Amino acid sequence: MPSSEKPASPHDRFPKERSKALLSFILLAFAAVLNEIVLSFVHERVPETPPLPDITFSLIPYYKDGLKICEYIMLASFASVLLLMLFHR
Predict the structure, then answer these.
(1) What pTM, to 2 d.p., does this model score?
(2) Boundaries of every domain in the chain
(3) pLDDT beyond 70 at 82
(4) CB 21 within 8 A of CB 15
(5) Do 1 and 15 contact (CB within 8 A), yes or no?
(6) CA-CA distance, 5 to 47, in Å (whole number)?
């Protein structure tokens, strides 16, 4: 649609291309499954060696509730993205 033409209704803003949306969803699902397969393969094949030392953990003190706080931050971020997608025009 040329930029000079106005859509007849707000629902006509985006062209209906269901085949492209379906292909995108199939590719997304394929990538997710392939990612899980690769992660499980690497998890089984990696040798059992101790992890390398991490300088960050030796410099920053351990905070007991840090994981819980991070999970709340992730949930708040996810909720804000969902609200943004819901109310975006």
Answers:
(1) 0.45
(2) 15-87
(3) yes
(4) no
(5) yes
(6) 61
